[in-house]
Design goal:
Blueprint lengths: L1 H12 L3 E8 L1 E8 L4 E8 L2 E13 L13 H11 L3 E8 L10 H35 L6 H45 E11 L3 E3 L4 H26 L5 E4 L4 H7 L1 H4 L1 H10 L6 H8 L2 E5 L3 E3 L2 E3 L1 H16 L16 E8 L2 E9 L7 E4 L6 H14 L3 E6 L14 H4 L18 E3 L6 H7 L7 E4 L5 H19 L9 E5 L3 H4 L6 H20 L5 E7 L9 H7 L2 E4 L4 H7 L16 E6 L3 E7 L11 H8 L7 H23 L3 E2 H8 L4 H13 L3 E5 L7 E5 L2
The protein binds adenosine-5'-triphosphate and magnesium ion.
């Protein structure tokens, strides 16, 4: 069959190893990618192949500071996992035949028993020597010249009596301890259960012809890896469980977890004894790290009853300690060194000097929530400016008139006063060249604007449009963006679509059928881009008050937005945020402009957001009309020279103030340029014009510095 001839080769060329075959009516071949730890099931069905990918995990680890904040009961943990991972398949196997090796206290019992045996051997030797010496003393009693020697022997007898007494008392307490431990172990064997907590994610089933197997495998792996990064890791690592996950490093370990009945520790031991040729040590060892031992009932040792719940928690903690090989992500995580400068990291209420950069290619769809006045519009402007500075396409859907200010420099003194806190020069405030449109329907011009003919960002303002028209138009724009991008795949971000006040496009609060239909179309289009836009380099950044603003696509947004930004929120957002940040209550006390930014690159980080260079302000109809007149719509050439001018100013100011040249990357932060290409272009322009000169320092990293030319 075509499949048999080519499949294994095709799979091997994709880095997969053939694991084996399952005969479940259809022959299912299992493959494993050791590097990516992805498992594939491939089934032949008439002339087609059905391919499904899986990634599997088990719970591990706990916060480094050792706080006991994980759930205290296993059913509770189970419920949490089911509620928060509807897409995961959870296995929590209980089995009763605990092997003695897995019972708490077993190593202690073993150590005490060994010591007891040694002590009793020592006692025998000491007693025998004591008795021997006593005999000699009796025999020598009448011989006076041996008086001195018998004195020595008497001292020895006394010493051995003392040693024997000490040993007897130690043995007595060891026996008592052993009895206690044996009783506890007996209790555990009677009531204790071992369980393995593992869960997995499965991709949808993909269907393909045998000749396109390799391409399908790529798509499946992509799906699995994407969910791995965006959903599973992020949720658990920022989440309230404070337990972490470890991926299974051997595919068969999951089968062990699924088939705990077969691999119950006691049964493995019995099997190993019955069939010595089978080496089950490896399975046993790997399985032991996945075990939680918890009692089914209270454990009562000599009238001392310990509540079962506590023991479960302790056992769970012991289990976590045993497998805690994974570094908790937010401690010691390296922060990205390049990307959009979001702001400075905060420690409690103190703003540090540590910048938080967000690489645009790691944004992979964003979601920003917060109550009115929390700073969402400022934050999304910061991201927009980063995208423009980095040469990406930017489309803004603005239900109001706030984004016209993108074209204008910030000029309010209270906002400018904050520039220096972030190492930004107030004189670098500037507007960005952009197309500003107020369309009322989907025209040829709108479509061509969306295709970004001139490389300039486009702001679409919907101010004044009735809701039905606004949503209908927004849905069409999003669909158009998706279809034009879907023509070719892209590794990185090509176009960022910021949807400001997304709830105004989405909330289903209308009796009118046309509006309802238009609203549903927007949600569908957002849903589509969130699920599939990434591979075409099309990302959305949704700005809204709460996740509840999205009705049917909320699950997609939860799962597919990799970057979450939480700003001050009321109680209704906390449940959702709890999946990503340890203490969601802190959201209620954030100040305007403070945010918790979550991304798998750095976990969750509290940030004071930098002020944008341009002005975030709701313009009056008249002001925006003036702007529309083109007066404030500079061309991109002016913008380039604006940036070059800002750079020159920074270089000159720095030299005047310090007498030193400025490090190039520091100068770029001050003017908000992050793209490597753009940085070099600006420096080259000024150098060519003879306005600056550059030099590479002979220190670590060979930083380039910029001098003004007098
Ligand atoms: N990064 C920032 N730098 C300086 N000031 C800020 C910043 N973020 C917020 N502010 C202050 O907080 C105010 C509210 O911010 P912003 O308009 O972004 O809130 P919002 O969440 O978009 O509110 P709404 O939902 O009403 O649109 C701003 O007018 C400004 O004074
Ligand atoms: Mg706003």
């Amino acid at each position: 069959m075509a499949y048999q001839a080519t499949a294994v080769d095709a799979m091997e060329s994709c880095g997969f190893e053939f694991l084996g075959m399952l005969g479940l009516g259809h022959e299912t071949r299992l493959f494993w990618h050791p590097g990516k730890r992805v498992e594939l099931a491939v089934v032949q069905h008439s002339d087609s192949l059905l391919v499904k990918g899986m990634k599997k995990y088990f719970v591990t680890g706990q916060s480094k500071d050792g706080r006991e904040t994980y759930v205290r009961d296993l059913p509770g943990l189970m419920r949490y996992m089911e509620d928060h991972f509807p897409e995961a398949h959870l296995y929590l196997g209980f089995f009763r035949d605990l092997s003695i090796r897995f019972v708490p206290g077993a190593p202690e019992t073993e150590a005490a028993a060994t010591r007891l045996t040694r002590a009793s051997e020592e006692l025998q030797t000491i007693s025998a020597n004591g008795a021997k010496h006593q005999k000699i003393i009796t025999a020598l009693k009448d011989v006076s010249e041996f008086g001195e020697a018998s004195q020595v022997l008497r001292t020895r007898v006394k010493k051995s009596d003392q040693d024997s007494a000490a040993l007897r008392s130690e043995m007595q307490s060891l026996r008592e301890r052993l009895t206690g431990l044996h009783e506890m172990m007996a209790q555990y064997r009677e009531h204790g259960r071992a369980s393995a907590l593992a869960f997995g994610y499965s991709s949808p089933v993909f269907c393909c012809e045998p000749q396109s197997l390799a391409a399908t495998v790529d798509a499946v792996v992509d799906d699995v890896m994407n969910t791995h990064h965006t959903s599973v890791r992020q949720k658990l690592e920022g989440g309230q469980l404070q337990v972490f996950i470890e991926e299974l490093s051997f595919p068969w370990m999951m089968y062990s977890a699924e088939a705990v009945g077969l691999y119950a520790p006691g049964q493995i031991e019995r099997l190993a004894a019955e069939v010595p040729s089978i080496d089950l040590g490896e399975i046993e060892e790997a399985l032991s790290s996945m075990l939680i031992v918890s009692p089914a009932e209270d454990i009562d040792v000599r009238g001392h009853r310990t509540p079962a719940k506590r023991i479960a928690a302790q056992a769970f903690r012991e289990f976590l300690k045993r497998v805690d090989a994974v570094e908790p992500p937010s401690t010691g995580t390296r922060l990205p060194e390049e990307g959009v400068l979001i702001g400075h990291i905060m420690q409690g209420s103190r703003q540090t000097d540590t910048p938080l950069f967000l690489p645009l290619d790691s944004l992979v769809h964003g979601y920003c929530s917060g109550i009115s006045g929390s700073g969402k519009s400022f934050l999304s402007r910061v991201i927009a400016e980063g995208a423009i500075a980095d040469g990406r396409n930017l489309v803004v859907l603005d239900p109001g008139n706030q984004w016209a200010g993108l074209l204008l420099p910030e000029d309010r003194s209270d906002v400018l006063a904050r520039f220096r806190e972030f190492g930004m020069d107030p004189s670098s405030a500037r507007g960005f060249p952009a197309n500003y449109c107020k369309p009322d329907s989907m025209t040829q011009e709108v479509s061509s604007r969306l295709e970004d003919p001139d490389g300039q960002p486009t702001v679409f303002s919907f101010k004044g449009l009735p809701k039905a028209n606004m949503c209908d138009l927004a849905a069409k724009m999003l669909q158009h963006l998706f279809h034009t991008h879907a023509r070719s795949e892209s590794d990185g971000l090509r176009t960022l679509v910021i949807i400001e006040e997304a709830h105004r496009f989405t909330k289903l609060r209308s009796d009118d059928d046309t509006t309802k239909k238009a609203v549903a179309a927007v949600e569908d289009a957002i849903d589509l881009i969130a699920r599939e836009g990434r591979k075409y380099g099309l990302n959305v950044f949704l700005v809204s008050q709460t996740i509840r603003d999205f009705t049917h696509s909320a699950a997609t947004i939860r799962q597919n937005t990799t970057t979450k930004v939480f700003m001050r929120s009321s109680d209704r957002e906390l449940d959702y945020a709890a999946d990503y940040i340890r203490d969601p209550r802190q959201l209620t006390s954030l100040q305007p402009g403070e945010a918790i930014v979550c991304n798998p690159l750095f976990g969750s980080v509290k940030v004071r957001v930098r002020p944008p260079f341009s002005k975030v302000i709701e313009l009056s109809a008249r002001d925006s009309a003036t702007l529309l007149g083109g007066a404030a719509s500079p061309s991109s050439t002016t913008a380039a020279s604006d940036e070059a001018e800002a750079l020159l100013r920074v270089v000159e100011d720095h030299y005047r103030e310090t007498g030193e040249p400025i490090i190039m990357s520091h100068a770029m932060i001050k003017i908000g340029v992050t793209s490597g290409r753009k940085k070099m272009a600006l420096v080259n322009t000024l150098e060519r014009q003879g306005l600056i000169r550059t030099q590479k320092l002979k220190k670590l990293g060979a930083p380039r510095v910029l001098f003004p030319v007098e």
